[in-house]
């Protein structure tokens, strides 16, 4: 008889289970889950906007949500590429990316302005819904990530003498 392991493989009866270890570069998985959740919410807002206020409302909702998704996706992509080579440097990259995005998107919206056809109410509604749903999905997905907090020293490594005997029960 075998039992499923957390990684989807089956464990053989009587065989010891391996420790799972850390999640390798979780950012793309988090991006996919958050984008799927925000996409589903956006479709609902677009449908509601189209029924209530017409096609321009649906288009405005799509644009508002797309801007939010793009804004957040850039951060997760930066985290993925920087985190693979320098995991501790990912936080600094997130901060720098955030500042650049706020300035860049703010300048773009200021320069481009709002087109006459844009229904700003549905743009705003979809943007807020996308932010809330994205953040919720991102926090949920991130809570499922496994990080190795410390590395176990192999038996017999310098500085480990006697540790096994002290904790043996």
Automatic annotation (TrEMBL):
Record keywords, A-Z: Membrane, Transmembrane, Transmembrane helix
Segments traversing the membrane: 27-51, 57-78, 90-116, 122-142
Source superkingdom: Bacteria
Name the record gives this protein: ATP synthase protein I
């Amino acid at each position: 008889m075998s039992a499923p392991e957390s990684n989807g493989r089956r464990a053989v009866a009587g065989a010891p289970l391996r420790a799972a270890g850390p999640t390798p570069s979780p950012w793309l998985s988090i991006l996919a889950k958050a984008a799927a959740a925000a996409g589903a919410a956006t479709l609902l807002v677009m449908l509601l906007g189209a029924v209530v206020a017409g096609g321009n409302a649906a288009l405005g909702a799509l644009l508002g949500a797309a801007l939010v998704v793009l804004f957040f996706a850039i951060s997760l992509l930066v985290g993925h590429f920087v985190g693979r080579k320098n995991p501790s440097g990912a936080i600094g990259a997130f901060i720098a990316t955030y500042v650049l995005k706020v300035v860049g998107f703010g300048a773009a919206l200021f320069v481009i302005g709002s087109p006459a056809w844009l229904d700003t109410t549905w743009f705003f509604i979809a943007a807020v819904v996308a932010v809330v749903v994205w953040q919720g999905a991102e926090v949920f997905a991130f809570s499922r990530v496994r990080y190795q907090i410390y590395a176990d020293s192999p038996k017999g490594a310098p500085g480990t003498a006697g540790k096994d005997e002290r904790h043996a029960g």
